[in-house]
Amino acid sequence: MDKRSSSCGACLRLARARRGARQTFVDVFSQLAHRAQARLILGAVLLFLAGCSGAKKEKPKPAQSLDELRTQLETILKETHTPGLSIAIVHRDAPEWIAALGKADVAAGRAATPETLFRIGSVSKAFASLSILKLVDDHKLSLDDPVHKLAPEVWFENRWESTDPIRVVHLLEHTTGWDDLHLREYSKDGAGMNLRDAFDFDHHSRVSRWRPGSRVSYCNSGPAVAAYLVEKVTGQRFEDYVQQNLFAPIGMKTATYFQPPPASTTMLYHEDGATPYPYWNVIFRPAGSINASANDMAAYVRFYLNRGMANGIQVTPSADIDRMETPASGWAAKDGLKAGYGLSNYWKVRDGFVYHGHNGGVNGGLTEMSYMPDHDVGYFYSINSGNGEAFQRIDKAVRAYITRKLEKPALPPIAALPPNAADYAGWYEPDNPRNELTRFMERLFGIAFVHFRDGKLLAISLDGWNEPSLPVSGAQFRDVPNDPKEAPEPVASLALLTPNQDGRFFEAGTQMMKQIPAWLAISQSVLSAFCILTILAILLYAPFWVLGGFRKRRRRPAERWMRIWPLIAVLSLISCALIVALNDSDPITEFGSPTFWSIGLCCATILFAVASVVSAVAVWRAPTDGVRRGVRRFSTIVTTGLLIAAAYFAYWGLIGLRTWA
Fold first, then answer.
1. What CA–CA distance (Å, rounded) separates 238 from 151?
2. What range defines the domain where residue 18 resides?
3. Per-residue buried b or exposed e for 256-278, using 16+ beta carbons within 10 Å of the residue's own CB
4. Can you give the pLDDT at residue 295?
5. CATH code, domain with 252
6. Which of 41, 183, 266, 367 qualifies as a cystine partner to 104, CB 3.0-4.6 A?
7. Strand segments (E) across 323-388
8. Total domains in the fold of the chain
9. What is the pLDDT of residue 482?
10. CB-CB neighbours of 624 under 10 Å
11. pTM of the prediction?
12. What's the chain's average pLDDT?
């Protein structure tokens, strides 16, 4: 369960963001508010202001010593109101720094120490993969075994099961095609529940939306099902198997899947650094429940750097670590793209260096675990706050320190464009949403146009303008940032995929883009712009007729409802965004069960649809006399926009949305 975790020019930037922080399960509804409001309004304003200022914030200088790094990190904690930090920097042969800064419990004044347990979120998933690989090594199952044959009692739906069954590898590489957990599942307190009970609680998210083994789409239930397979094969509870076969031999002496005693663990806080979250008993513990200290995680990172060896013992064959770092089951992997999401372990490129690892997040806690096997160095850190700014600044500071004396990998030579490159020119839309709930927005705002010029792939989208990628081999490309201060990627991260029965695609990072007809792309964009302008026009017009209504000679009763109902529709739509934004810090609690806010959101969507329809009725029934021609035209136009928006939302199931169902 990952935190902070966007489409072609945009897709390339989105790929970079999603490779490093794509997997976030508490962002489902914040996406609705932030993408709709921030991208359309705040983003434009901030970009304008930034352009006017002409000033760019300088990158902080890399710390040259641990004392300097400690000072930088303490400053970040103070400036972002982040209570505490657990951190480890290690090399293959020994740890360099294991520490904790700040407070584990603000109210009690208890300091964080290297022994304090922090929640590591989705970094937990790797233990499901490691456990499965151990069973594969023992010839007790195979990564290619169909899940249905191993555990027919676990419900899922896959209409391609006869030809493309869900296999064990799909659970761990997130290629099942399942939706991510629904808010009802996230909000369920899983204290005392076993995995079978968790699967039976709700299964509606476990429906394949496309052929398994094609697209990567992050899904928290996949590793949990894999953990259940471990229980069936071994006859042990998964947590006990991990403790015996992984935690103990690796040297993770205090790591646990269960709630520790209060004195040994950190409190988790909202972004204000003062308001605590209650302990979250995740319904699928294997997906994100581990509590671990800096000491535990230092041993864990060294385990990867030593290719499965810990304390002189080969806990896992080195080939298993290689397999974890190598994507295999998706279309892009089958076409030869090495970068991507492997077995609970993914590639990410930062400042020209290639890292492996995973990040994670729970309510009030963010974690990063990264390592570079080619440079024999890795790091871990975890904060006890949901502050994304602190998380990113800490990551930059740590990476700058560990790479300050390292030489960047050589760039692969530029190749010629593939002979069939022209076939891939055209319009694309995202086709592997993590949350089906947000697909309606991703397909509109993630649309991109791809073309080729001067031996480069260029992409235009809302997030970027002519973002270039250079061919390196076959149909693979590496990203080249427009900013010359940013380091180019030393590995291919984009691939034009072999066409198949589902169409023509390319993949950047883990973002799958599907080619669509030009008429569809253009009509979607035009209608989206029309609907947005409609909403803005209603809001701009409303103050004038509302204020004019106070003057008797300007009152026109025949026009009243033609004006009021469109305004009600827009205000109800705005209220939806406000409800989401106001609960951005804890959407799971507020929307995962029937609450004032979740019911209010449901009612607001219904009101929007009703007001849009009634607005159309008001225009149709308005008398010929008493209604000015301009007002009638305006009302007809804006009502058309509202009806288009309402129909689109209804198609995607957003009208009467019950987030708790």
1. 15
2. 9-402
3. bbeebeeeebbbbbbbebeebbe
4. 98
5. 3.40.710.10
6. 266
7. 346-350, 353-362, 365-372, 377-383
8. 2
9. 79
10. 7
11. 0.90
12. 89
